[in-house]
């Protein structure tokens, strides 16, 4: 069960972007609030990939390549083929109008953390976030109660946490079926004289193998279809067509791209 904790609740875990997460509580944050900004996602302008939950594969696949990466096979939306760069957030911190914004960003500066003293999740806020301030325009508390805004944020984080766990189960299931394979994305640039340059590795990531998927028992394939997992896999495969979009945009902006995704 999630709740707003006492000020001294012990926390565990670290999350990308959160520099100073604090449990939301009346004692410390009664006068705290958020100041709306036209660039709420500026903090992510150097993030070349962002975590996704499986329920986002549909809208995200229209914009980004979706890959599985790291020891945990974390689903990621790739936003650039270069480190410390995001092609969808400009220098002013404005997110592209035509790009899907992952829920991982939209929940910020709120996040759930594990209370190590009890089996529950507690709502935290990144006190270092640029939008957080004393006497902010949108208060966290009204008198001695959570404001409607904070309650809505808590609900969003609750739904996100449920989907995050569902995503973990989705990945766990695919790993148990042993359908993942390691893939590379390579790009061959053109030299000034029109000849092909040296190939550049853009990405190395995991992806369910179409061959391995076809080889699964019919009953297993039917189970994947009924659960919706097969649809998510196809969305992932379709999203890989967006690699060309990323490469083309990088070539438009930079003469010598370096692949790091």
- Looking at how many chains there are and whether they match, the oligomeric state comes to single chain
Q: How many beta-strand segments?
A: 15
Q: What number is the mean pLDDT?
A: 89
Secondary structure tally, helices: 8
Give the proportion of residues in helices.
Answer: 25-40%
| Rounded Rg | 21 Å
Q: What is the beta-strand fraction?
A: 15-25%
Number of domains: 1
Distance between the termini: 36 Å
Give the ordered list of helices and strands. Answer: EEEHEEHEEHEEEEEEHEEHHHH
Estimate the global geometry from the Cα principal axes. flat
Largest sheet: 5 strands, mixed
Which spans of ≥5 residues are poorly predicted at pLDDT below 50?
A: 1-13
The chain-level structural class is alpha+beta
How would you characterize this protein structure?
By secondary structure, the chain is an alpha+beta fold. It has one domain (2-251). Helices cover 31% and strands 23% of the residues. The protein contains eight helices and 15 strands. It has helices at residues 26-29, 57-60, 103-106, 148-176, 210-215, 218-227, 229-239, 242-253, and strands spanning 2-3, 11-12, 21-23, 32-34, 49-51, 66-69, 74-78, 110-115, 120-126, 132-134, 138-139, 141-142, 145-146, 180-187, 200-208. The strands form five sheets. Strands 1, 2, 3, 8 and 9 form a five-stranded mixed sheet that branches. A three-stranded antiparallel sheet has the order 10-4-11, with no helix packed on it. A three-stranded antiparallel sheet has the order 5-7-6. A hairpin with a 2-residue loop joins strand 12 (141-142) and strand 13 (145-146). The longest helix has 29 residues, at 148-176. The chain starts with a strand and ends in an 8-residue tail after the last helix. The relative contact order is 0.19. Mean pLDDT is 89; it is low at 1-13.
